[in-house]
Amino acid sequence: MAWIALLDTREGRFCANGLGFDHHDAPQCDMADGGMLTSGSLMLETRMSPDGRPQELFGFSAGHPWPRSLTFQAIPGGGISMVHSHDGTVVHGAIRRKTFARTDVLRVTYAWDTESNWARLSIEEPEQGEVLAVPINDPKPFLVSDLRELILGQTDRVLAQDVIFAALSTQIEPIGPMPSLDPSVMAATPHGYRPVGELQRGDTVMTESSGVVPVLHRIDRTVPARGSFSPVRLRAPYFNLQQDMVVAPEQRLVLRGSDVEYLFNQEAVLVPARHLMNGHAAHPAPCGPVITYTQLLLPGHETLLTAGTWVESLYIGRLRRKVDLLSNSALQNLERSTLPEHGKPAFPVLKWFEAITLTDQRAA
């Protein structure tokens, strides 16, 4: 199982054996003429139209050897609809957001498994951590050739300018809490720094509020290295870093100091890495088509000491109580009894304009 296709603003890529380091020795889908993809995930990230009017975002239509089409559409109120027409049968679903803002990036994922007669349409707001999902009845498979031509632009395709990227996986991709550290990031333990990607359940790490705590789980995930997954390189010596480290845009750092107290009347604040990209302290990290992130799940959502700076560990809130979301998340294979419940973050999370104010203050 692998990511086999990626479309961004520059180009489309398709490789049946898997993209980048997600490459396998054998094809991950049936490339024969008429081959079907009976299970997988089609993901796209987009910005929504500011006027709230219906807008076709992504899709295709074809007429031979039978009529078929796929359409993702933005609908009034900030929602998303999906319609898949397959030889006279129509599969559809719609989902609405709780909030609407032009600056929001929306991640849409349609996952299906026709052998299990299961499918799911979901939307996520990476900046807010919101996740909504609805079941889809009686899903149909896709011709592999249709999806290949969709990504490569070799068919009657709709691709809105607001679409940031689209990607295709041959497995059911999870939704919800997302790991956000490069596996090479060095985490402080009682025995010195170790790569976070080598830590296992039962190992211990140094935290800011609770001292030494055990690692409950390490979560790994491979994703397209585009959009809200695009890696960010944080540069030493900024943020007290002893060496550069690579993180996902949504990884939050703990920042403190007299300027934080003056501007926000707080001892410390959490700032997503994407807000720190000013060309000096943080900038985009070169990467291939896919990237693997990892993160540690700790008992009390403690902050980790990584390469000299404090960062947020994986936050799952009360996910263990939300059976449907848990079963669709990257934690789905973990025993519920081993999952903690996390209260609200100890420090406030800065919005983008607040983070800009802080970074400008520090650059002055």
UniProtKB/TrEMBL annotation:
<protein>
    <submittedName>
        <fullName>Hint domain protein</fullName>
    </submittedName>
</protein>
<dbReference type="Pfam" id="PF13403">
    <property type="entry name" value="Hint_2"/>
</dbReference>
<feature type="domain" description="Hedgehog/Intein (Hint)">
    <location>
        <begin position="187"/>
        <end position="317"/>
    </location>
</feature>
<dbReference type="InterPro" id="IPR036844">
    <property type="entry name" value="Hint_dom_sf"/>
</dbReference>
<dbReference type="InterPro" id="IPR028992">
    <property type="entry name" value="Hedgehog/Intein_dom"/>
</dbReference>
